[in-house]
Every structure is written in structure tokens, then in C-alpha cells.
């Protein structure tokens, strides 16, 4: 694994104020992302997995500084993005891009495909006119589309084709770091595999680094070098894709794996299913101690009182759980 850190996130928090009353006073905060830290190495894919509402997309937006964090730092190539003014941050947008979740809403229906892909190049002064048009054609072919599609509108394309256009738009400014924010969740299963394989090929050809966000544990394992598991704003386990699959240590991750069907019918019949009771607590008022203590089948008294730190139990494998104290 490469040892050059491209992105370093340290103690990142994002709280949203909850206001009420006539004077709209703040009486609580939604703790969407609550003190997470991780590194992403150059050329690798870090998968970020968790159920809906756990803070994955918020973390992505804060990393890109589309929203400013409440606390914490984000370093891209050693530069602290959280302390970079907006004017200077704009020039850094060419280094980091995002592929959005919904290909039906992320493209302007009034702009042709070519104009949508060319717009970032024009905004950042990378290419204009004929040069931009030629670059648009190259990008369309790079993502598996015909260069003559540039004059068409998004409504003329399927969901999978639109997502390819979104990928081409993200790559138009030659970024080194791309966040894939659930890019396959709204697509058919057969198309999902095509998009993920396209992302893997582009990573090899262009030397890209990904943060791949999804709630599909198996797809995250397939595309990622390492995987971070989030629950209620916290990272509860982080390790290589093999560690996460072969030796899940946190009870939440064990429950996620047990919910997935197995292709072997004999193993499917004999395996033990872990059923979680109750609902995910509110991020406005998370439980004291471990965030997972209200649903954990192995809960102990210390879990309800002391928050477990994320610590390394074996080389490259970090877990936040009192079971291993």
C-alpha cells in the first residue's frame, strides 16, 4: 500500500443547530459527524459504509469544504483546507471533485451534455472554445460514451449514461482526489457493476484517489483497499477490505455482514443471523458512552458509561469497542 498520505482528516465534527421558539434560540445540536479521523493514501480507495443517516454524505461535503466543519482539520497534500479562505479554496477545486448520488438531479436539464462537462474547465480557465470541445469529446469516450452525444440533453439518456456524464464532468478539471457519494445507489444492479468497473479502470489509468461512500457493504469491499464503518456520526471500525470481511470485530459490523445473503445455500442455512433490536438513536441526543449500546447484543455496563476510543487492535485494523479492552 502506498505510504504517501493524500488526505488527512483529524477530529472532524459537524454540528447543526436546532432552533425553536419565537426568538429562534438554539436549544440543541444535530451531531451529524462527531469527531472522526482517517487518512487516505495516494492512489487508494477508502470505502465509507453505514446505514442511511449515519453522516457519510455530511462527512464528504465537509471534507470538500462545501460545508465548513464545526471543529477539526482536513489536509489535502499537506494544505489545511479548513483554514483556507473561500477565494483561495476555489483554485483548489481542480484537485478535488465529487460524483453525486442522483444522476437525474445532478445535471442541469437546460444544458447540453457538452456544456455541462465544459463548464468546470471554463470556470477554472483550463480550456475554452474548440479546445474545450475537443476535451469534452475525449472525456465522453473515456467514460464509454460517443463523443457526438455532446450536443444532446440529459433527458435523452438513461440513469447509467447520466452517471457516466457526471463522472466525465468530475474528471474535466484533472482532479487527483474524487469523492464518489453513493454513485450507484439509484441504478439497476446490472448497471452498478459497469459503473464500479469504470471507476476502477479510470483510477488505474489516471492515478486517482477515491473516497467511495455507500451503504452496500459488498460493493464497498469490492472497490476499496480499506473500509471505514460509520454509525451515528462515529467511525466504529476501520481496516483493509480483507480484515473487514474476514474478521469483523465490532458488533455492528458483524450484524451488517450477517444480514447479507450468502451464495452457498448450505452455509446460508447454518449461519447465525444477528438481529438488531430497536431503532438508531437521534443524533440530537445520542446515548452516553458507546453510540451502539442501545442496540448491541453484547452490551456491558461500561458501554453505557464510557465512550470507547478508536484504537488499533492489530496492524491496520482499528475498532472502537469495549469488548476488546
Report on the architecture of this protein.
With 325 residues, this protein is an alpha/beta fold. The chain has a domain at 5-95 and 175-248: Rossmann fold, CATH 3.40.50. The protein has helices spanning 56-63, 86-92, 113-123, 129-142, 159-171, 189-206, 217-223, 241-246, 251-259, 265-270; strands at 5-20, 25-41, 45-49, 71-76, 79-80, 96-99, 177-181, 209-214, 226-231, 234-240, 311-314, 317-319. The chain has an 8-stranded mixed sheet with strand order 6-7-8-3-9-10-12-11, sandwiched between helices. Helix 3 (113-123) packs parallel to helix 5 (159-171). The longest helix has 18 residues, at 189-206.
The whole-angstrom Rg is 21 Å
Strand order of the largest sheet: 6-7-8-3-9-10-12-11
CATH-derived architecture of the domain at 5-95 and 175-248: 3-Layer(aba) Sandwich
Tally the helices: what do you get?
A: 10
Structural class: alpha/beta
Q: Which consecutive residue ranges, at least 5 long each, have pLDDT under 50?
A: none
The CATH topology annotation of the domain at 5-95 and 175-248 reads as Rossmann fold
CATH superfamily grouping of the domain at 5-95 and 175-248 = P-loop containing nucleotide triphosphate hydrolases
Shape: globular
**Largest sheet geometry:** 8 strands, mixed
How is the quaternary structure best described? single chain
Beta strand %? 15-25%
Distance between the termini: 29 Å
Amino acid at each position: 500500500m502506498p505510504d504517501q498520505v493524500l488526505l488527512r482528516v483529524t477530529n472532524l465534527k459537524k454540528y447543526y443547530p436546532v432552533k425553536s421558539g419565537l426568538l429562534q434560540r438554539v436549544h440543541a445540536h444535530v451531531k451529524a459527524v462527531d469527531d472522526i479521523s482517517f487518512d487516505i493514501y495516494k492512489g487508494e480507495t477508502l470505502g465509507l459504509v453505514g446505514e442511511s443517516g449515519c453522516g457519510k454524505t455530511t462527512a464528504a461535503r465537509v471534507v470538500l469544504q462545501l460545508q465548513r466543519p464545526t471543529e477539526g482539520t482536513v489536509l489535502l497534500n499537506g494544505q489545511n483546507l479548513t483554514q483556507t479562505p473561500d477565494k483561495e479554496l476555489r483554485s483548489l477545486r481542480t484537485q478535488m471533485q465529487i460524483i453525486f448520488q442522483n444522476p437525474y438531479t445532478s445535471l442541469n436539464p437546460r444544458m447540453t451534455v457538452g456544456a455541462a462537462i465544459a463548464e468546470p474547465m471554463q470556470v477554472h480557465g483550463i480550456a475554452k472554445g474548440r479546445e474545450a470541445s475537443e476535451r469534452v469529446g475525449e472525456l465522453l469516450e473515456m467514460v464509454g460514451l460517443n463523443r457526438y452525444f455532446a450536443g444532446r440533453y440529459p433527458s435523452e439518456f438513461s440513469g447509467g449514461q447520466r452517471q457516466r456524464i457526471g463522472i466525465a464532468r468530475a474528471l474535466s478539471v484533472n482532479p487527483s482526489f474524487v469523492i464518489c457519494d453513493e454513485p450507484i445507489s439509484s441504478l439497476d444492479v446490472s448497471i452498478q457493476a459497469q459503473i464500479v468497473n469504470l471507476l476502477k479502470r479510470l483510477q488505474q489509468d489516471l492515478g486517482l484517489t477515491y473516497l467511495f461512500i455507500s451503504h452496500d457493504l459488498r460493493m464497498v469491499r469490492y472497490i476499496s483497499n480499506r473500509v471505514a464503518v460509520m454509525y451515528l456520526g462515529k467511525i466504529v471500525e476501520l481496516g483493509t477490505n480483507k480484515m473487514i470481511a474476514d474478521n469483523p470485530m465490532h458488533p455492528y459490523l458483524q450484524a451488517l455482514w450477517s444480514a447479507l445473503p450468502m451464495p452457498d445455500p448450505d452455509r446460508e442455512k447454518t449461519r447465525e443471523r444477528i438481529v438488531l433490536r430497536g431503532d438508531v438513536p437521534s443524533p440530537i441526543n445520542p446515548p452516553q458512552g458507546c453510540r451502539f449500546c442501545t442496540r448491541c447484543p453484547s452490551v456491558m455496563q461500561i458501554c453505557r458509561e464510557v465512550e470507547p476510543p478508536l484504537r488499533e487492535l492489530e496492524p491496520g485494523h482499528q475498532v472502537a469497542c469495549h469488548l476488546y479492552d
